[in-house]
Amino acid sequence: MPDMNRQAVAASGRIHSARADALGTAADWSRRLVIGVILLAGGRLLGLPTLSPSSALVIAGLGFLAGLPHGGVDHLMAMRLAGRRIAPVVLAYAGLAAVAWSLLRWGGPVALLAVVALSALHFGLGELVVTRELSGWRPSRITAAAIVVAGSGALLLPLARSGGQFSDVATAVSPGLAHLIGAAPVRTAVLLIWLVAAMIAVVASLLAGRTGAALDIVLIGALGMLVQPLVAFAAWFGGWHALRHAARMLAEEPGCSVLLAQGRPRAALRRLAGLAAPMSVAALVVIIALAWFTVTAPDPARVLAEVLRLLLALTVPHMAVVWWLDRLPAG
């Protein structure tokens, strides 16, 4: 029995180490990608040519599409958590997404505002979880709240800055909400809230010796401040949030975690990609169908609006699954 306990402890240690390595690698790559986007799209401050409107829309679209697979194993996680067969879990997941999409499509600005607020909370909580897992730091409640708000900066700052393309897409999604978030007092308030939260989070991180957490907030702020608003959010969604969440799923999905513990990260990544492929392809097909049937003119802003509406709808069940996972004890 003691030998079995030692083996179990050793296996758990290998899994924790592999989890930290996977998340650390994803964090490093997400930082590199964001720095690249800042240099590419925000290079006007350095005298570099700015992105053309068409190029910006293409980058934004690619960012949104790149973020699709990160929720592709949600149904498998929910099935494991609920102890149910896959069919009812998939139906419940798809049904909740369909209800959310219907409310976003026909429910007016209130429904959209609620989903945007929940999305900001989801993004910020994701940053807090990554900070805890990478550093082992357990900040105070005030600092944790500041990290959550600051971590959602790639959504809050583009909202505060608005801009032509961002406004066009927002108007295509909801004219009423676009008018609200475009109001100067609202934009100023959002910006000030983020700046205060970011200052608290960065100072607390540096005092605690967690320079990685401080760096992440600085990069999120630079992305949201310097890059075109629509490109900033899309690049962060696909190249930061989705990448880090996928790394977490490598350790959460049982088969992938075993492969990680065996020192086979590429095999674990291939397995995760294979598991996420069916749901990702299904979401992509729905996006194409929505673009085909709802867009009567070749208007890129309206196409992106449909993509964004679907992503927001999928975020609702995704948030529920991630919240459920985060409530479980570590290990």
How would you concisely characterize the structure shown here?
The chain has about 325 residues and is mostly helical. Helices cover about 85% and strands about 0% of the residues. It has helices spanning about 1-40, 55-65, 75-80, 85-105, 110-135, 140-150, 155-160, 165-175, 175-180, 185-205, 210-225, 230-250, 255-260, 265-295, 300-325.
Main pleated-sheet profile: none
What is the C-alpha radius of gyration, as a whole number of Å?
Answer: 20 Å
Distance between the amino and carboxyl termini: 21 Å
Strand residue percentage: under 5%
What is the strand tally? 0
Describe this structure in words.
This protein is mainly alpha-helical and 331 residues long. The protein has one domain (13-327). It has 15 helices and no strands. Helix 8 (164-173) crosses helix 9. The radius of gyration is 20 Å and the shape is globular.
Strand-helix topology:
Elements: H1 2-41, H2 53-67, H3 74-82, H4 86-106, H5 109-135, H6 141-151, H7 153-161, H8 164-173, H9 175-181, H10 184-207, H11 211-226, H12 229-252, H13 254-261, H14 265-294, H15 300-327
